[in-house]
Amino acid sequence: MPIELADLREHGNLHASGSFRVALLIPMCGPAGIWAASCISSAQVAVAELNRSDGIQGRRVQLIMIDAAVEAGEPIEEIVNELIELGAIDAIVGMHLSAVRQRLSKVVRQRVPYIYTPLYEGGETTPGLFAIGETPQEQLGPAMAMLQQRFRPRKWALIGNDYVWPRSSHSFAKTCLKNMEVDLAMECYVPFGLPSMTKLVDRLEASGADAVLVSLVGQDAVNFNREFGRRGLHRSILRLSCALEENGLMACGEGNLESHFSVSSYFGSISTDANNCFKERYYALHGETGPALNAIGQSTYEGLHYLSGLLQDFGDVWQERSTQDYLPVVHQSGRSFTRKNGSKRPSVYLARADGIQFCDFKIL
Predict the structure, then answer these.
(1) What is the distance between the alpha carbons of residues 136 and 331, in angstroms, rounded to a whole number?
(2) Could you tell me the CATH number of the domain that includes residue 167?
(3) Fewer C-beta within 10 Å: the chain N or C terminus?
(4) Conformation bin of residue 253: beta by default, left when phi > 0, alpha when psi is -120 to 50
(5) Model pTM score
(6) Total tally of structural domains belonging to the chain
(7) Cβ proximity of 139 and 119 under 8 Å
């Protein structure tokens, strides 16, 4: 069972318990809270698998759930620093926004290994921190090129939440548009939890864009797509998202996602050997009514296995290494990998939303 944060603070160093304690940092409130159930359920599968063997470093793995939402009540940096100083955690697996990662990277300081799991903007070089998700170069660029070739939109719009991942991704997208000699019709960033998407969609509709890159998070993306769908804008504007997964797809509603494409290294319905094995273990643990399988959740499963492999293969040097070293960590994953530039990187797929499921997968 997960350890409660209050218990750790009360009892301090619990190494005598023999457990290897992993702080699982995930958003549990705010727009990104829609991902929490899938993240927890997927991480639990990894813990069950690790504990059926030798755990991590010969110790039974135990999760500590911590709310890493931007909107969380307590500052995440203070919580994590306190737990590290108490000797109460042995590692971090984080599925949260890049803004949170940037804050935590200044606090963790190589004291425990830190695995950052979701897609992100790239460029992470902090020693002891390993970002395993795909970057815009791997994900966004090929997807935009394929849609541009297929549909020939004359103008693109860029819409996102106001933080580092959308802004960095959109900077890359603008370079892609320039290289493809396509115009930028609109670029706009909005705060988390925007009460109404009406004015934003008004601006998009008036911009003359034929395509829009939607870099909104969780419930914000859902609310945007609902408003977009109510107006029937799919008849004139196609949508691309790097972060709309199966939970968001269902929440948007069957009629609000026509002409919507998502790009990711994982979809729950992809039929690959790696995913088929992961799904079998996931449903064996949680049953057919478990939370939806998606890229965000799968990343916590993979992050725990990556942590185990990292400490097994690089336990004596992980503090001096970082994401940019592309360490050949052997680990289990629901994703499939291909060899690129001498290293294994995840295969990336472009999918079309069809009702409340994804289909027409294209490998990029």
Answers:
(1) 23
(2) 3.40.50.2300
(3) N
(4) left
(5) 0.93
(6) 2
(7) yes
